[in-house]
Amino acid sequence: MSLEEAARQLKMAGHDAQVAFDCVGLGDLERAQEHAVTLRAAADAAEVALSRALTDLTPEEAQAEGERAIKALEDA
Q1: Could you read off the pLDDT of 36-51 as tens digits, one per residue?
Q2: For residue 43, which of 12, 34, 61, 66 sits 20 to 30 Å off, Cα-Cα?
Q3: Distances (CA, A) of 4 to 17, 29, 33
């Protein structure tokens, strides 16, 4: 997995966290739980990608790859 995938997964987790939060406020606990589960899966996937990057990339490579990842998400 790449840093682009890690960034994408983190963005998805953030979205699911917001939806879960909103659902709690609306009293829709089943939907809140569904989004809490999907945010956890996305966060776990991001953590795997980041752990891999820590072992595979130099700090300079990580910076360049991270910049590319964020740009790619912004362009999408």
Answers
A1: 999 999 999 999 999 9
A2: 61
A3: 20, 32, 27
